[in-house]
Amino acid sequence: MRTYNEKISIYHGMVSTIAVNLAGNFFPIFAISILGANNYQVGLISSLPPLVALIMTIPAAILLNRLEQQKKTVALTVFWARAMFLLLVGVLFIPISYQAWTFLVIIAVMNIPGTISNIGWQTLISGMISEERRGIFFSDRNRLLTVVGMLTTLLIGIIMKNQTNNGSAYQLLFFIAFVFGLLEMFFLLKHKETMKPKTSNLQKNSYMEWSIFQDQGYRWFLIAALCFNFTWQMAWGLFNIYYVKYAHATILWISLFSVGNQLVQIFTFPLWKKWAEQKSNTLMLVWVSIGMATAPFLNVMSINPFYLTIVSMTSGFFMSGTTLLLFNLLLEKSPEEKKTYCITTYNVLLSFVAFIAPQFGIWLLEMSNIHFSLEISSVFRCFSAFVFMLMYSRSIKNKKLGTA
Question: How many domains does the chain contain in total?
Answer without folding.
Answer: 2
